[in-house]
From TrEMBL:
Entry-linked Gene3D superfamilies: P-loop containing nucleotide triphosphate hydrolases (3.40.50.300)
A GO molecular-function annotation: hydrolase activity
Boundaries of every DNA helicase Pif1-like DEAD-box helicase domain copy: 119-267
Reaction(s) the record says it catalyses: ATP + H2O = ADP + phosphate + H(+)
Entry keyword DNA damage: yes
Major enzyme class: isomerase
GO biological process, one term: DNA repair
Cofactor(s) demanded: Mg(2+)
Keywords attached to this entry: ATP-binding, DNA damage, DNA recombination, DNA repair, Helicase, Hydrolase, Nucleotide-binding
Family that this chain belongs to: Belongs to the helicase family.
Entry keyword annotation includes 4Fe-4S: no
EC number(s) reported in the record: 5.6.2.3
Name listed for the protein in its UniProt record: ATP-dependent DNA helicase
Length: 267
């Protein structure tokens, strides 16, 4: 462990710690944890600092959760089986949620202040309407018809930055991996919403997200969802998202009352 601490990342050290516990029969793993717990939770602590929520107990608990998850995958056992204190999983912070709240606020402020004046009249109208719906909490489903080279990605990234700079959650998805890389924090829609791959073969395909899951906690906090190149997706990709959001938000409104912006070339 001493050598690993010098050359490895906290995530890699947690992996090593889990392997040592599972396979090496440590006589006193708690003592080893006490010695290296600051290093084992260093990256998590940095995330909390960005969120202005520095709490050592929460950081250490989150590190224990990561370690226990690795131990479960390796041996099927829990930390308590090795004489370690079990992490508190009730009300645990979702790793996804921590990531979405860890954007650099100063950089987002700069991005918004520099790019807002560059909006064209039509872009500004769309921008204001989306933000108004988010601020009022009214929700809504919007379609942005934009052929290539019309500033669609520019507008989407500005909307994402505007929501995130106020420490709110805005999710960015796209129907293709290439389109996802152009969005800030973007991922494929299948990854974000856990859509099944065989959409065409199922009559009512589900999103594999439950209310009590980490992704469910993320969607509960979500203020805006941007889905780029949605016209490339099967229609059954949109319907399960609607059902999923209604369930997670406990709201029968369209998309569970979350503002969803579907962008693409509809022509």
């Amino acid at each position: 462990m001493e050598e690993a601490v010098l050359y490895r990342s906290p995530s890699q050290i947690r992996e090593l710690f889990a392997i040592l516990i599972c396979t090496c029969g440590l006589s006193n793993p708690l003592q080893l944890w006490d010695k290296y717990k600051v290093t084992l939770s260093e990256d998590i602590s940095h995330i909390f600092e960005k969120m202005d929520q520095v709490n050592n107990d929460l950081c250490l608990n989150e590190a224990l959760i990561h370690i226990e998850d690795k131990i479960i995958r390796i041996s099927g056992k829990k930390l308590s089986d090795f004489g370690m204190p079990p992490p508190q999983r009730r009300g645990e912070l979702s790793t996804d949620l921590i990531k979405e709240l860890s954007y650099n606020i100063a950089l987002l402020d700069t991005q918004v202040s520099e790019t807002e004046p560059c909006l064209l009249l039509e872009q500004k109208d769309i921008y204001n309407k989306i933000l108004q719906r988010v601020e009022l909490g009214e929700g809504g489903l919007f379609f942005l018809d934009a052929p290539g080279s019309t500033g669609k990605t520019f507008l989407l990234n500005l909307l994402l930055a505007k929501i995130r700079k106020d420490r709110n959650v805005a999710l960015a998805g796209a129907s293709s991996g290439i389109a996802a890389t152009l969005l800030s924090g973007g991922r494929t829609a299948h990854s974000v919403f856990k859509l099944p791959l065989n959409l065409a073969s199922e009559e009512t395909p589900p999103c594999n997200i439950s209310k009590n899951s980490a992704r469910g906690a993320l969607l509960q906090q979500c203020k805006l969802i941007v889905w780029d190149e949605c016209t490339m997706s099967h229609k059954r990709a949109i319907e399960p998202l609607d059902r999923c959001l209604q369930d997670i938000q406990n709201n029968p409104k369209l998309m569970g009352g979350v503002v969803v912006l579907l962008a693409g070339n509809f022509r």
